[in-house]
Design a protein that fits this description.
The complex is a heterodimer of chains A (168) and B (497). Chain A has 168 residues and is mostly helical. Chain A has helices spanning 5-26, 30-50, 54-78, 80-83, 94-114, 129-137, 141-162. Chain B has 20 helices and four strands. The chains are: A mainly alpha (168), B mainly alpha (497).
Chain lengths: 168, 497
């Protein structure tokens, strides 16, 4: 097994993702966490791209970085209490948490290395949008439609929760 | 297109629910005076239509929607059960008789109720991991909103947030397990996964499948409130408005069990010589047996010291999840039938108990068991009905709760001596359970009240529903052979052969 260029790219993206995720959890200020999250999302988008999932990579950038994160930043910056909040990120129950995390890591690592995963036929990277569109209107029509009901319900729920006054 | 035309006739209950959901949203948006009554009427009509359509489906078991769902007798049974439970909740638990919901807008509540029901139906007939995950998330997300419906209340908000956090972790674990399963088998379709597992596995891959089964079970366990995925349950049941608690304690739980049955029977085992064979020698039954024992024991022991009725019924519902799982562990036709019968009984007894709790809260404004003292003198009819529900929950003959317990225990015992210890643990648990149900009865009938309270007046509609639910705990025994025949006829699971 030799080291290829794509391995290098993978490692770079993985390092960005994991490194910034560590900052997200450890940062004392919420605003630092939110900005670090930007790089986590970016790294994940890079991993998608490396897997040949161009559409998902683009959606990841557009929706998570362009939408959700910006909303999150607005939320943090417009809310004074949150902005000035000094997060209590002291470590509690270090030993049990470390044991659980290490145990989980070992189990997942063993699982990852020992299992024979199903490897599909390789193919040259090509645009996937067309195929995704056909699948949404064909095989995955029902989940696609069900998701629209879910969005409707989420809207109703959000409106209900934020509306201020009780009404008869 | 031909696939859609083929699938639509088997999809009528879901279409009825979706139509009702959209109409309720539209009616509520018009702002007319009668919108609350109208939305309730539309909800009831939609649910009644869905119930009739679920019962009317007698087609051959087959995949629909390109393998996303299946239409089979088991699916129809669970659809009828789930829609029926929603219908009882929509009609018996009104905004009038719940002190918590009184005066709140009804349109959203009914829209959410219809949406959870629709998601429950999708979950009960899911045949593909993608659909399964989406349906489960739909049930969860809609339930989170329903729990927060009592907006002014801190407990309700806290309960909803806890529910969201636990839900995120458990479904995260589940979807991780699903991704591993896809990585192993190269497919999200349950029949294909089963076929792959049946071809035989290396020891290393078998280890992976055990872990995957556990991870995926986290999602099912969260829905059915099985230990150790139950931590949300008491707080959410206590914080949510009581009608929502009653609904959550039966419908999503039943949907969770239907998908558990489908996944473990239809995905990880195959219909073979000894009714069901384990696919690829993955013996998941001991895993579920362990969880089931933990679930019933933790639920029953924790319920012993509860003084809040909603918390007590929450722990009791955890314990019942443990008994229902015995039907899955048995891995036989009788086990599946026992599970179905148990859930049928559980719906009527648990909804009945919660209706009594709601009415007492409306009258006295309390959920505290100690305030139930002397209720028998003020409301003898209500106390009598509560006695029926509690005896049914205990599993005392001749009530439906007994039949449920009888069938699950029988299904486990008949698997042979290695299962007898398991059956014994279940019996001991039923005895522990009897203690705290009896404690409620003792408080209601024997204990003297601390303060004089005004006479207990019940509107006719509530009285009628209490009577109907109490009757539903007794009358099925009169035509039991039909109930049993219905459950037996609903046994065939589409196995993708």
């Amino acid at each position: 097994m030799h080291f290829t260029a794509s391995d290098g790219v993978f490692l770079a993206f993985a390092a960005i993702t994991v490194g910034s995720a560590v900052v997200v959890t450890l940062a004392r200020s919420l605003i630092y966490s939110a900005f670090a999250l930007l790089f986590t999302f970016f790294g994940v988008a890079g991993l998608y791209l490396l897997l040949g999932a161009d559409f998902i990579a683009a959606s990841q950038l557009l929706i998570y970085v362009g939408g959700i994160l910006v909303l999150l930043l607005f939320g943090v910056m417009l809310t004074h209490k949150l902005y000035d909040l000094d997060l209590k990120s002291e470590v509690t129950q270090f030993a049990p948490a470390a044991i659980v995390a290490a145990g989980l890591f070992v189990v997942l690592a063993v699982l990852g290395f020992r299992t024979t995963w199903k490897i599909g036929p390789g193919r040259a990277p090509s645009a996937t949008t067309d195929e995704i569109g056909h699948l949404f209107m064909g095989q995955y029509l029902l989940p696609f439609e069900a998701a629209s009901v879910l969005l409707l319900v989420a809207l109703i729920g959000a409106a209900m929760i934020v509306r201020r006054k009780k009404e008869a | 297109m031909p696939e859609v035309l083929k699938s639509l006739p088997r999809f009528l209950p879901e279409i009825a629910l979706t139509a009702a959901l959209l109409l309720v949203v539209l009616v509520d948006a018009t702002g007319i005076k009668a919108r609350n009554a109208l939305s309730r009427l539309l909800t009831a009509l939609g649910l009644a239509a869905a119930l009739a359509l679920s019962l009317a489906d007698h087609g051959v078991p087959s995949e629909t929607w390109s393998g996303m769902l299946v239409a089979d007798p088991m699916g129809s049974f669970f659809k009828a059960l789930l829609v029926g439970a929603s219908l009882v909740v929509a009609l018996a638990f009104t905004f009038r008789n719940s002190a918590e919901l009184h005066g709140l807008g009804q349109g959203e509540f009914h829209a959410l109720l219809l949406a959870v029901t629709l998601s429950n139906l999708l979950l009960a007939s899911a045949n593909d991991l993608a659909m399964l995950y989406l349906a489960l998330e739909m049930v969860s997300i809609t339930s989170y909103v329903m729990v927060a419906y009592f907006k002014g209340d801190r407990m309700s908000n806290e309960a909803s947030l806890k529910y969201v956090l636990f839900g995120a972790v458990s479904t995260g674990a589940m979807v991780y397990g699903m991704s591993l399963l896809y990585g192993l088998t190269g497919s999200t379709s349950l029949p294909t996964i089963r076929a792959f597992l049946s071809e035989g596995l290396t020891d290393q891959n078998r280890f992976a499948v055990y872990l995957i089964a556990l991870l995926i079970f986290a999602g099912f366990g969260f829905k059915t409130a099985a230990v150790p995925f139950h931590f949300w349950c008491p707080d959410v049941y206590q914080g949510a408005p009581t009608p929502v608690t009653a609904f959550l304690s039966v419908a999503p739980k039943a949907a969770g069990f239907s998908i558990m049955l489908r996944f473990f029977f239809g995905g990880l085992s195959s219909h073979g010589a000894t009714p069901w064979d384990l696919s690829g020698l993955i013996d998941w039954t001991w895993l579920l047996m362990l969880i089931s024992v933990l679930t019933m024991t933790v639920g029953n022991v924790a319920a012993l010291t509860q003084t809040n009725m909603k918390r007590l019924l929450a722990y009791s519902s955890i314990a019942h999840a443990g008994y229902v799982m015995m039907g899955v562990v048995a891995l036989s036709e009788n086990g599946a039938r026992a599970l179905m019968i148990y859930l049928l009984a559980y719906v009527v007894m648990n909804l009945g108990a919660f209706l009594v709790v709601t009415l007492v809260h409306k009258q006295d404004g309390t959920f505290d068991l100690r305030d139930y003292a002397g209720l028998s003198k003020r409301a003898p009819g209500l106390t009598f009905a509560m006695a029926i529900f509690l005896f049914s929950l205990m599993g005392i003959p001749p009530l439906v709760g007994f039949m449920g317990k009888f069938y699950v225990f029988a299904a486990v015992i008949e698997r042979g001596p290695s299962y007898w210890a398991y059956g014994t643990i279940g019996a001991v648990n039923a005895a522990i359970g009897a203690y705290y149900y009896a404690r409620v009865l003792k408080t209601m009938i024997i204990d003297e009240p601390h303060v004089e309270k005004p006479a207990f007046r019940l509107p006719t509609a509530d009285l009628a529903w209490i009577a109907a639910l109490a009757a539903a705990n007794i009358l099925p025994l009169l035509f039991w052979s039909r109930v049993e025949a219905w459950a037996r006829a609903s046994l065939s699971i589409y196995a993708g052969l």
